[in-house]
Design a protein that fits this description.
Organism (chains A, B, C, D): Paenibacillus contaminans
Protein name (chains A, B, C, D): 3-deoxy-7-phosphoheptulonate synthase
InterPro entries (chains A, B, C, D): Aldolase_TIM, Class-I_DAHP_synthase, DAHP1/KDSA, DAHP_snth_FXD, DAHP_syn_2
Radius of gyration of chain A: 23 Å
Keywords (chains A, B, C, D): Transferase
CATH architecture of the largest domain in chain A: Alpha-Beta Barrel
Largest sheet of chain A: 8 strands, parallel, barrel
Order of helices and strands of chain A: EHEEHEEEEHEHEHEHEHEHEHHEH
Strand order of the largest sheet of chain A: 7-8-9-10-11-12-13-14
Distance between the termini of chain A: 59 Å
CATH topology of the largest domain in chain A: TIM Barrel
Number of strands of chain A: 14
Strand content of chain A: 15-25%
CATH superfamily of the largest domain in chain A: Aldolase class I
Oligomer: homotetramer
Structural class of chain A: alpha/beta
Shape of chain A: elongated
CATH class of the largest domain in chain A: Alpha Beta
GO molecular function, one term (chains A, B, C, D): 3-deoxy-7-phosphoheptulonate synthase activity
Number of helices of chain A: 11
Chain lengths: 352, 352, 352, 352
Amino acid sequence: MIVVTSNKVSEERVAEIVKYIEKHGVQAHISQGVDRTVIGIIGKFDPTLAEHLRQMSGVEQVLKISKSYKLASRDFHPDNTIIKIKDVEIGGDQLVIMGGPCAVESPEQIDEIARLVKKAGGQVLRGGAFKPRTGPYSFQGIGVEGLAMMAEAGKKHGLLTITEVMTPEYVDVCAEYADILQVGTRNMQNFDLLRKLGTIQTPVLLKRGFSATYDEFLNAAEYILAGGNPNVMLCERGIRTFETYTRNTLDLAAIPVLQGLSHLPVISDPSHGTGRRELVESMCKASVAAGANGLIVEMHTDPDNSMTGDGVQSLFPDQFAGLLADLEKLAPLCGKRFDTPKEVIEPGSWKK
Amino acid sequence: MIVVTSNKVSEERVAEIVKYIEKHGVQAHISQGVDRTVIGIIGKFDPTLAEHLRQMSGVEQVLKISKSYKLASRDFHPDNTIIKIKDVEIGGDQLVIMGGPCAVESPEQIDEIARLVKKAGGQVLRGGAFKPRTGPYSFQGIGVEGLAMMAEAGKKHGLLTITEVMTPEYVDVCAEYADILQVGTRNMQNFDLLRKLGTIQTPVLLKRGFSATYDEFLNAAEYILAGGNPNVMLCERGIRTFETYTRNTLDLAAIPVLQGLSHLPVISDPSHGTGRRELVESMCKASVAAGANGLIVEMHTDPDNSMTGDGVQSLFPDQFAGLLADLEKLAPLCGKRFDTPKEVIEPGSWKK
Amino acid sequence: MIVVTSNKVSEERVAEIVKYIEKHGVQAHISQGVDRTVIGIIGKFDPTLAEHLRQMSGVEQVLKISKSYKLASRDFHPDNTIIKIKDVEIGGDQLVIMGGPCAVESPEQIDEIARLVKKAGGQVLRGGAFKPRTGPYSFQGIGVEGLAMMAEAGKKHGLLTITEVMTPEYVDVCAEYADILQVGTRNMQNFDLLRKLGTIQTPVLLKRGFSATYDEFLNAAEYILAGGNPNVMLCERGIRTFETYTRNTLDLAAIPVLQGLSHLPVISDPSHGTGRRELVESMCKASVAAGANGLIVEMHTDPDNSMTGDGVQSLFPDQFAGLLADLEKLAPLCGKRFDTPKEVIEPGSWKK
Amino acid sequence: MIVVTSNKVSEERVAEIVKYIEKHGVQAHISQGVDRTVIGIIGKFDPTLAEHLRQMSGVEQVLKISKSYKLASRDFHPDNTIIKIKDVEIGGDQLVIMGGPCAVESPEQIDEIARLVKKAGGQVLRGGAFKPRTGPYSFQGIGVEGLAMMAEAGKKHGLLTITEVMTPEYVDVCAEYADILQVGTRNMQNFDLLRKLGTIQTPVLLKRGFSATYDEFLNAAEYILAGGNPNVMLCERGIRTFETYTRNTLDLAAIPVLQGLSHLPVISDPSHGTGRRELVESMCKASVAAGANGLIVEMHTDPDNSMTGDGVQSLFPDQFAGLLADLEKLAPLCGKRFDTPKEVIEPGSWKK
């Protein structure tokens, strides 16, 4: 940690600041500059001390040198975290594809989509039972019964399942039904939810907030890790920028950045990252080329009539299968394998 | 609602889209353009229909003409909402000042600060018992006992109180102690929390999310209003932009914009909006000049040692009193009155 | 300047970095941390050395402590710059209002508007002869003859004039006709234009780029100052953010920030900052309350038919006069005087 | 084009607006909604009419349905533009790699780098003779003599050359020496420069502005096309967002978006897009996977001592060659070929 004083602060004030620092059991090294004094603090980063120093008069800047998160950092855990769920390993050399509808709508719908995800070669079935919606008058998901429908479909077709949990009180019931719990972008800093997820062992896919920095994102993961749940994967899903043509701006550099700063697996979500079906396939390929450990992709048998309106970013089943076939070839060039059995899906060969 | 087709879509497809629209009991008006067809839909805005249309093939854009929120809109409620709590009216011609520390730290601290807020002429005591923090190792607030301390101090000094609630399960206890409940920026789209706040009548100060559009902000308010609680005030507290010198970019145009779109009171938070003490006073004045119904301002008796590190954006008590004296003169030029009794606070005249 | 090494870099590499630094005639102070070494560099900031260090292996961060601009900094020039043009002083205690159309359209139009600006109490006539437009098919301004029309109108009505210059080759002709030259937001980093403006003495109003940080903005001013022209004023005109309801997000904190970092006058442009007529008046008042040295405001006699389409953000003459009357009262509360003679303008009392 | 009236505007006003529209020789179709009237305008988009309508009282929104750019649009030119320069085709099925230093520093430097670019399999040599720099005290490029050095090196090693031009008056001399002229991000809306580039036939690589929307970017290209130069390629080089860990946020979705909206080739610049060497390779692969027609990549023989400080984002020659070898395998999976002769470059096998 480094403290930079204001321009032309008195020697007395510098001495007081140093004294304050040393009271906290850490050493202060002074470098006297032309206009400002720089005080290096030796010892572990102490966020509270940093905050106090930042607000002292005579202090212009407090610069963090070490990171505020620990368990999420690769400095503390050099090897990749590999999350093993049944026969799927996330974070290693396997490419993992999570596919399915935005929302679970009926037993028939989720069963048919599960069949198609499996046929195409995916390993995880996605689907929301609780939906976060901008306005109160939009469809909010079918709730707990949707969880059961999805669990049933996953089991029948040999797929893991992932679903979103929105509030601490639903964590236990969601964990009972699903293999992976998703924290949505609007809840990345819902700290009570994160704390609750730290108390279980179910793997969590944590989505990056609309406008979260990498540092904030990793600190959010730290909440779950610090609670005792090591099974966290990070999900880049696009950030909010001035560009409105796409729903969000998919920040693919986040993939290698997060893999460098952290040991946690990184999943990419091109469906929300672009909001446009015609961009999903190229952004899936780009994500894999960038080193993603997996993808979460919306696929729907009848996107024109999806209940959430996210059909516009959902692939048709034949597109989904075509994409996965392409990824099988691409993966080995990017240090991954994606060797699940895959079958072609013909257009129109599914039940709407 | 307007539907714009893709370039050169077939007449058959247009007919299908129109048929789909009419099945929903609304009328479609067709305008045939050179390359595209425009379909105007007459009738109330139906978000579900809009979502479905947006995802149909042959549809390029669906443009919302009317707004997706109703109860929050000035179209539906032309007069200003005035929230009356004891003798304070928020949203009318009175300027309301909420002052206090970032966090309640001890009974002595909050009592002394309450005394100073009252002396300076403020009407509401702010203070957090539950603190949302980026990282899990930072001070998280002192919890429920802080609520009691603040309620006690408010009562003793004749001030209303406002405090942040972070999770649905704490809404009831917070409402027991505080006059106004605050929803923080990270929770603007914590929909379960909003729904819970809709079930009570305690006034709510809803802070704008880091990167929330006006439309999303008003939709979040709509959740509370739709639940049955009409006592909502909106708070502009700075948005996230590329500029990092200030903690956030305070968007003061939000004040007249929100007052135009909605009937709800608008409060400004220059402390979080800038993150720098030396900018708070000018931004408070600018907020009042822009038409704000009130301000929420951090003030601390010992900002160098505040427990959250937000001291850097807290005014000293003498600065706070000086500001309020200036605002008393400024308010009448901006259509407000701010005629509470006010006394000068001398530097160093308070207990740390 | 501070150099922070990467995690666990070898002592040898640190020694090499230090040697490299000392070769440049500056001293290096080493603080050995737990994982990283911090090297403080004593001496003037050298941007080239910083750039070289930043790219050396073993270096994680190079932190600038002193600023990269000098002549624009208040550290080097503690007193406010006051630019005196005829009887107008910009940067002192006088509030300066620049009003007029987006574009000069005809001799009659600019003469009538000049009359109204003077009558309302403004000191400077604005108007563009060269217009930067997003697309090539939009009206591009009437060119050099517009300069002459505006100079004539300014002279007749006793107003200074300001106009935009877009390219180095037009600097001389614009300077011949106008009292102040404006650099538009798109040209803030048109360095050849800035260099050319550094070679003359005509005052320059430099608009902040769409997405320029304060540091970049002041560095752009530094180009003009370093060339030998000390007469620079800074103009906050809104930045680009995710919010699209307003044309830009007017960053009013920029006013006190820039006045703190620099000695140059700061002007606010609420017309471009909001893009909406109904927001201009409140944002003008807020700008003055925030401490602006002046305002540049669009006013038009026939905004429905303005040639650039910026009529939507132009005040009508009666609104403009009403605003200036309000500002006369507001200014003294904000440390300014605005005591020019002012007359009421009745709606419809002007020639379209 | 669609005009939406304000809430509850009178029938008389609607009639006036319609009359105004019809005076311009286009037809107006009226759809009467519950609160608002929607007027569809049939006929070519007229930006001036749109601007006038937008500023009329009673008008809430004017929505553009067709695009404001024409020559740049795929609607008007369905086939890909292929720019043929000697034996290189940009925009077709060939992947084109432009490599080289940020700045030309000496004849020996640029000659050695040209040798390495060719050896690795690149087709174009990049290098700046004129450098746009944030501050006036940074290295500004070596000027015209750098152009000659680069032309010489390109000729000797059989590479095309690309260099940045910053001001209209240097267009001719740059075009004399270089095969492709680059417009930098700060100059994307330097309209005089764009107009001048429209008068020649030399291919232009137009970089996206820091915060330019796709629409503004394509309108900037339209300036060059409208002037008569059809040889324009678009370059995504990262946009400015709230995230500061990377120099910019590389928006890879821009690649398929721009290729959909336009027929012009799209080049990606991961060096400026990330600002960090360790991210360049993965972002180059991701760009190709996203469908880029080419890459522009910084490579330097001695990045620790590059004169601009951009060494931190420059690849070493061996990394560059390794990347190109990988791209040769990747390209065919993405519909491209990259079959230039390639040789391995051993670490340390070059002259610094």
